[in-house]
Amino acid sequence: MKGWMSVQFDPTLWTDIIFLIGEITIVAVVGIFFFALFLVGLSIYSINTGRVYFPRFLKAGMMLVEGLAKSLFRFFGLEDSEVQTFFISLQNTMNKKSFSDIPITERAVFFPQCLRSSHCPAHLSPEGLKCKSCGDCPIGFWRKVLEQMGYRVFIVPGSSFIKRMVRKYHPRALLGVGCLSEVKEGLEMADKIGVVAMGVVTLKDGCVETLVAWDQVMEVATLGVPPDNIPPEVKELAG
Ligand code: SF4
């Protein structure tokens, strides 16, 4: 009886606890803010120098403070497209070595159908467009080169085709071409399903007759290929 009667509410203890929680919260918020600021600063430095510094640290950090980092990028005047481009090069930098190590016969290339000519005679099949190499756009030429190298090549109207082809053929590596948002989404999707992916962004957006830098596509496609095995068409392209 005497024991519980002696336990008394101590208001100063509660005040101390609330102050402590407040202090910890402020330190955490300030810490997160400066952490995001550091990541954004490192990203902007990487963008300006054209070289990605500490890619794994940057990617892991950005996943933690994504929303705040986006606001900071906007505060520093960066367009969303610049930030997306940077994240694609970040992902490509991280995946380059693994991509190079995967045999070409276990890689697949996905082109968007917007790259073809507006007069394209190819028909849509369950595996995408069946290119007839009619010569009206460069896909026909480079598809053959890539297939001779050992790649599976698909010309697809959307990401649902990519998922279906990945489920069917189980490639270990993907090379995806598309507009900024398509490539970003494709890289994220590949990351989630554990497939190594590299992306090349088209030079022009749109629904028909878009453009891509074929030297960039083939530069990625020949990663890990011994110089003697690089097709002469690719060597010519590189000059
Ligand atoms: S080369 Fe292939 S993709 Fe290009 S327009 Fe001809 S059939 Fe279509």
Q: Key terms for this structure?
A:
239 residues; alpha/beta; four-stranded parallel sheet; 6 strands; binds iron/sulfur cluster
Give a written overview of the molecule.
There is one protein chain. It contains ten helices and six strands. The strands form two sheets. It has a four-stranded parallel β-sheet with strand order 4-1-5-6, with helices on both faces. It starts with a helix and ends with a helix. The protein has two domains: 2-78, no CATH class; 96-238, no CATH class. The longest helix is centred in the N-terminal third of the chain and has 39 residues, at 11-49. It is of the alpha/beta class and 239 residues long. It binds iron/sulfur cluster. Iron/sulfur cluster binds at residues 116-117, 120-122, 131-134, 136-137, 139-140.
Shape: elongated
Which stretches of 5+ consecutive residues score pLDDT under 50?
none
Gyration radius from CA atoms, angstroms: 25 Å
Separation of termini?
Answer: 94 Å
Which molecules are bound besides the chains? iron/sulfur cluster
- Secondary-structure element sequence? HHHHHEEEHEHEHEHH
The major beta sheet can be summarized as: 4 strands, parallel
